[in-house]
Amino acid sequence: MRRIYEPQNLMEAELLLGMLDSEGVFARLDGRDLVGGTGELPALGLLGLAVADDQARHARELIDAYNAACPVADDEPQSFPDVLDC
């Protein structure tokens, strides 16, 4: 297993786990149990997504595509400008 990405928070980590799973990539989330120690532990680097070595490149491409995604123009609610509505 190779650590390929450090999510910003647990919500992003869970979203990426689901996305990778839907694409047939098994991923493991390291550090999930450490999130409760924020304040006592360093804030960065607690979470990490790990995948099998042979799936690392494909998983990284999927995550890069996720990070590069932009909302569709004129497809956001008027009450929440600049918020992506999923």
How many DSSP H or I helices? 2
Low-confidence stretches: none
* SSE pattern: EHEEH
Q: How far is the first residue's CA from the last residue's CA? A: 31 Å
Helix content: 25-40%
Q: Rough shape?
A: globular
What is the CATH architecture term? 2-Layer Sandwich
The biggest sheet amounts to: 3 strands, antiparallel
Number of domains: 1
- The helix-and-strand class reads alpha+beta
CATH class descriptor: Alpha Beta
If you compute it from the alpha carbons, what radius of gyration comes out, rounded to the nearest whole angstrom?
Answer: 15 Å
Record the strand order, biggest sheet.
1-3-2
Could you tell me the number of beta strands?
A: 3
Proportion of strand residues: 5-15%
Describe the structure.
With 86 residues, this protein is an alpha+beta fold. It has a single domain, classed as 2-Layer Sandwich (Alpha-Beta Plaits). The protein is 30% helix and 14% strand. The protein is built from 2 helices and 3 strands. It has a 3-stranded antiparallel β-sheet with strand order 1-3-2, covered by helices on one side. The longest helix is centred in the N-terminal third of the chain and has 13 residues, at 10-22. The radius of gyration is 15 Å and the shape is globular. The N and C termini lie far apart (31 Å). Pfam families: DUF2007 (PF09413). It comes from Pseudomonas helleri. This is DUF2007 domain-containing protein. Residues 1-65 form the DUF2007 domain.
